[in-house]
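Appendix B: complex inputs.
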Amino acid sequence: MAQLAEKTVVVVGGGSGIGKAVAVAAARDGAQVVLSSRSRDKLEAAAQDIPRAVVSPVDMTDPASVAAWQTTLPAIDHLVISASSAAHGRFQDLSDDALRAMFDAKFFGPYATARAALPKLRDGGSITFFSGVLSRRPGFNCSGLGAVNGAVESLAYALALELGPRLRVNCISPGMIRSDAYAGMPEDARKTMYEATGESLPVGRVGTVEEAAEATLFVMSNTYTTGLVLDIDGGHMIRQYATR
Ligand SMILES: NC(=O)c1ccc[n+]([C@@H]2O[C@H](COP(=O)([O-])OP(=O)(O)OC[C@H]3O[C@@H](n4cnc5c(N)ncnc54)[C@H](OP(=O)(O)O)[C@@H]3O)[C@@H](O)[C@H]2O)c1
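Resulting structure:
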C-alpha cells in the first residue's frame, strides 16, 4: 500500500481519463500528486477526488507555458505524461495542419515537457509516456495517429538508454479504453464503437481507465523496468484482422 509513500508524482493529463485514474491510484498508494493540463477548472474538479492533490496548469504545446510550469514544480519522483490529442483521417484527406497539431500535442509537447521536468526529477525516478496500439497494429484512417505513437515509443526507448541509470523511462501503449477521450462522440456511436471493438478482442470488451492506471503504476514503481513499451490492450495485438 505504501509503495509510493513520500513520493511525488506529476501527471500531465491528470484532469481526465487515464491520467486522472493514475493520479487517484498513486494517491491511494501514498503519493503526493501534482495534476497538470491546460484547463485549471478541469484540474481543480479532478483534485476534489484526490487527497492532497495540487494543480499546476500547463499547455505542453506552448514553450512559455512549459517554462512557467517548470518553475512551479517541486522535486519529482515520477513524471507521467498521458496528455495528448488525436487526429483521425484517411491518408489523402487528413490535413497537414491537423497532422502537425497532433504531433505538437502528442510528440513535441511531451518531449518538451519531459525535458523541462528533467532537472526536477530525483535520482531513481521515472518518466512514463503514452503511445497507443496503432503504432504497431494500424487501423484504417489512422496513419498519422499510428506514426505519432511510433515516435513516442522510439523516444521512450532512446531516453531509457540516455537517461539511465539515473532515471527509468517507459511507455504505456493502450488499446481502446473507455475514457473521457471519447466524451465528444454521440452516445449511440460511442456505445457501438465500444461494443464492436470489444467483440474483436480476446477479452471480449474494451478496457477501463483503472486497468491502464494499474499498468502505469507498475512501470513507475518496478525498479528493474525501463525501455518497456507495455501494451494494455485486451489482446488487440493478436485480434482478428478486419476485412476491408
Ligand atoms: N483512451 C483510449 O482509448 C486510448 C487509446 C490509445 C491511446 N490512448 C492514449 O492514452 C493517453 C491518455 O488517453 P485518455 O483516454 O486518458 O485521454 P483524455 O481523457 O482525452 O485525456 C487527455 C488529456 O490531455 C490534456 N491535454 C490535451 N492537450 C494538452 C496540451 N496541449 N497540454 C496539456 N494537456 C493537454 C487534456 O486536458 P486539458 O483539456 O485540460 O488540456 C486531457 O485531460 C493519450 O496519450 C492517448 O492518446 C488512449
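The chain has a mean pLDDT of 96.
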